[in-house]
Design a protein that fits this description.
Strand content: 35-45%
Shape: elongated
Structural class: mainly beta
Radius of gyration: 32 Å
Distance between the termini: 73 Å
Oligomer: single chain
Number of strands: 45
Largest sheet: 18 strands, antiparallel
Number of helices: 9
Amino acid sequence: MAQRYYKTIIFLLFILISPQAFSQLRGVITDSLTNETLMYISVFYEGKGVGAISNTKGEYTIETRRGWNELTFSAIGYITKVVRIEPGMKFLNVKMAPADIMLSEVVVKPQRERYTRKNNPAVDFMRKVIEHKSEQKLEENDFYRYDKYQKMKTSLNDVKPEGLDKGLFKKMPFLKDQIEVSPESQKLILPLSIQETASEVIYRKSPKNQKTIIKGMRSNGIDELFSTGDMVGTVLNDVFSDVNIYDNDIRLLQERFVSPISSSSAISFYKFYLMDTIMVDRHECVHLTFVPQNSQDFGFTGHLYVVNDSTYAVKKCQMNLPKNTGVNFVERLDISQEFEQLPNGNWVLTDDDMVIDLSLVDAVQGAQVRRTTKYTNYSFEPLEADLFKKRGNVIKDPRAQNRDDSFWAEVRQVPLTETEGGMDNLIDKFQEIPGFKYFMIGLRALVENYVETGTKNTPSKFDFGPVNTVISSNYIDGTRFRLSGQTTAQFNPNWFLKGYAAYGLRDQKWKYEAEVTYAFDKREFFPWEFPRHNLSLRYRYDVMSPMDKFLATDKDNVFVAWKITTVDQMSYVRDIEMKHEIETMNGLSLTTSLLHRNDEPAGKLQYLRNDGDATAVHDITTTELGVTLSYSPGQTYINTKQRRRPVSFDAPVYTLSHTTGFKGVLGGDYNFNLTEASIWKRFWLSSWGRADVTLKAGAQWDKVPFPLLILPAANLSYITQKETFNLINNMEFMNDRYASFSVTYDMGGKLLNRIPLMKKLKWREAFRFRTLWGDLTDKNNPYKNPGDSDLFLFPARDGEVTSFVMDPKKPYMEASVGIYNIFKILHVEYVRRLNYLDNPNTKKHGIRFMIMMTF
């Protein structure tokens, strides 16, 4: 009884003294210049091991104790502030002055501090974190699985209420009901799109296999206004991809950022500072801050909270872009991640939040993208082998896009706001606005290069386009007009039609193409959706340049039509082609084609036999069977109306092809065999940028006239094209053996960002080198076989030969130096030809450019 009495007395005494000994202090932290609330500010008692962090509204709460009379407020980008606390104080609002540390590269009070890694306790501690990071990777387990819920919201940012009463917005009064307040900036935002994904991730260590099973997908908002409805969501998920701080490089904004825990680069790339030891969710953590050595490099500023024990596990991570970052269009980027320790000792990611404010130009309304990701139900129990037998790394449940509200109520980890839940009504109201239909037609034409013929309720069955091919020009056509179109899956999910009709004012001839494709699997939008399994039949009559096949875009693209020289050696081509394409989920594809082609020279191109009399040949005919095997493991794509495009360029591409020509079959004039192989690979060099490398080789094994020899991949337009030679003339070299090498090194501003004054422009540098080794065996060389009528004389213009045989001991070479990110959109490149300078009509150097928007 006495023991209980004393416990009661002690408890009552504790109640009486606790308000004085352990009361709490609250307040709001704001920017002294902008008065905006500041999140993620560290609040702590120096040397006491007690601290807190301000929330997204700038609010903080910290306990007070007798004798502790100074509170420190600290954050990257702000001058550290020490405030004296008066006894009994309950509220303390603090204003913090920006330090502009990214410009002066100062982190704490000392100006131009001399940072050293030697005998630096922060660096020594980070080395231990990096040494132990492999222990925190899930892949160290034999098996794992977890559930993942992700919500991505796209909104107009910093909306001014008074602006909604003016101009175009005046016709949309309902937008005022859609406005929300951004928790981070306290600015008004207008949500326009919501994507939700619920998935399960499974992993097996041996044999290694990881799969993501998408159980539910839903998208509401502006996505519905585009026929290729997956386009917006796919781009967003690639640009704002998941962040793993334990990777050496963080892939984000289609770029690579150095992770603060990178094994290869973190210590040399970042400056680290020890702040204090504080409690984070009952774990004692070491608080570190970090900033890049150069703020314009692709890195982060931020905070790491590392558990102060032998695991050196990250408990919490907060990162943002430096104020003076070289990243384009991003006004603000905040990443916050939280980790928890499971009963088995594993530290796992549970919360991953990202908020990005984007601005194209000051005169255009900005946007905000918020991505919220929750990871739950981790398990490390063995998984059945059957789960890994399904094809592909990403598997979509057939019911994924048809889940009901009860499914989402169960899996949704973050409730929808009122405006998010009413997104369908917003789009319906947009559709009711007079003239909105025509506005969307113009917007789709700008974004997708096609003009649709449908609406939201009656999706387009036929699209006109590409728009940029309506008017173009070439030497044979003169001014050329073209009308093109194609059907969509709304017309038929298996059968697709496309074609064009074109007319040249100079030759006054009609050109045309018609193609029908049967997709063995029903398509959602277009037949080229991954994975393809198609059979197509195409008929075409058109005028072609020998170089057109090397273009990465349509040959009638109005921009590509602007040539550096007159291309007057062309052909009228009549093709009938049947093609079968099949792909697997792992990136392996096989294409088989049967082509019948009639080729009639036009302009200043002539086919003259090497028979001593230069007998003219009106046309040649070939019948060809081609097989192409391609492998691109892990590649993903986005579907556009014109073609599908790789979403990222991280996957290597291996290609092997062989084409056989049959003489006497369907009028074919020649037997021949052509083999080609290529490898393309991107190498990321951490903070030093990236290098794209291409290797190609090929051989024409048989005796053929020059139209069937191998031509260099020359680009004759002012628009730079990947993997082509800029200063080789049309059909300048004739080869039946070749090998080429191309490397493009993009430093991402690593050099220019270190030049005073120049670095303010935020230009980025790129270097290219291309070389071609070629050879022509004697059997295909008309100069070595006089009087051989099976060969043709090389092309000539006005009696002067324009094609040549390469010296097999002297490869062709050209190099270029480029600067891009000029005005954030322009790439300009100086190209220099290094040899074969004595060939007639060669251009030794030139300027190329491209409109290229990158982050």
